[in-house]
Amino acid sequence: MLKNVRVVALGEATHGTREFFQLKHRMFEFLVTRMGFTVFAIEAPFTGAWAINDYVLTGQGEPAAALAGLRFWTWQTEEVLALIHWMRAYNTSPEHPRKLKFYGVDMQAVHQEAARVVLAYLARVDPEHAEALRVLHRTGGTGRQPRCDARRDRGATVSD
């Protein structure tokens, strides 16, 4: 039935239901061990899932804290954490050269984290351009200091 299938989508009738995610975990194990799948993608922030993926691939970090970094109550469950632990255990085996990966596919709130990652990278490889990009990011792409920064001037209004 799944011959030549590259993507399997698993939804749920309700968010947070234990049995649905237990079934997803079992299905993912089957897809990995019998069908050669290597990616688990979840409706979660793309950049928020980076810490989980790092843990799954390298063992670095704390999986529960990484899971909390998704900032979505639906995934803050023992069942999701069990899947993450299973993925890490699978990846530690030398019998599995193709490593599993954990990705978020929700793009609603990636800009701040993505900007942080890009700026950190540029600071290492090209500090001059990193500072220029930092200014552009801070000024909304204009390069000029905004007249009012709501984060800084709480309650201030823009004047002419």
Present the secondary structure layout.
Layout: H1 18-35, E1 39-45, H2 50-58, H3 63-68, H4 78-92, E2 101-106, H5 111-125, H6 127-138
Parallel strand pairs: 1-2
Helix pairs in contact: 1-4, 2-4, 5-6
- Helicity, as a percent range: 40-55%
Element order: H for helix, E for strand: HEHHHEHH
Tally the helices: 6
Strand content: 5-15%
Principal-axes shape call: globular
Q: Largest sheet at a glance?
A: 2 strands, parallel
Average pLDDT works out at 83
Give the helix/strand class. mainly alpha
Identify low-pLDDT runs. 150-160
Beginning-to-end CA distance, first to last residue: 66 Å
Round the Cα radius of gyration to an integer and report it: 20 Å
Number of strand elements:
2
Strand order of the largest sheet: 1-2
Could you please describe the fold and organization of this structure?
With 160 residues, the protein is mostly helical. Helices cover 47% and strands 8% of the residues. It has helices at 18-35, 50-58, 63-68, 78-92, 111-125, 127-138; strands at 39-45, 101-106. A two-stranded parallel ribbon has the order 1-2. Helix 1 (18-35) runs parallel beside helix 4 and helix 5 (111-125) runs antiparallel to helix 6. The N and C termini lie far apart (66 Å). Mean pLDDT is 83; it is low at 150-160.
